Amino acid sequence: MQTSPKRINSKSSINDFLESLSKLPLDDQLMISEIINKRVIEEKRKELAASVKESKAEYLAKKTKKGSVKDFINDIEAE
After folding, report:
1. What is the pLDDT of residues 58-79, one digit of tens each?
2. What would you report as the CA-atom Rg of the chain, rounded to the nearest whole angstrom?
3. Cα–Cα distance measured from residue 70 to residue 52, given in angstroms and rounded to the nearest whole number
4. Looking at residue 61, what DSSP letter applies?
5. Structural domain boundaries in the chain
6. Whose CA, among 2, 25, 41, 79, lies 20 to 30 Å from 49?
7. Which of 39, 36, 14, 41 is nearest to 22 (CA)?
8. Backbone phi and psi for residue 63, each to the nearest 5 degrees, phi listed first
């Protein structure tokens, strides 16, 4: 498996960031951790909202169907 130069630079940047972070006081590290965590939560929220919007559009377009769990499993196994 060959690693792309972009991937190497990304890993290098992350390592540089973590090295710099480790030099900060613990309170600053915790604050940065909280900020990153909140950003990740917000991105997940955006992804979920987009998924819900897509699902609603499919439902309104009658691209979904009703059925039991057994029907769902049968559909999956048939694919």
Report:
1. 999 999 888 899 999 998 998 8
2. 22
3. 24
4. T
5. 5-78
6. 79
7. 14
8. -90, 5
Closest CA to 64 of 55, 73, 75: 55
Alpha helices in 1-25 (DSSP H): 5-22
Q: Can you read off the two tokens belonging to residue 73? A: 């499993």
CB of 21 closer than 8 Å to CB of 29? yes
State the amino acid at position 36 in one-letter form.
I
Q: Which of 49, 45, 69, 66 is nearest to 57 (CA)?
A: 49
Instruction: Look up residue 23 and give its two tokens.
Output: 């030099």
- Closest among 27, 29, 30, 9 to 19, alpha carbons compared: 29
pLDDT tens, position by position, 16-62: 999 999 999 999 999 999 999 999 999 999 999 999 999 999 999 99
Threshold 0.85, pTM exceeds: no
The one-character DSSP state at 67 is -
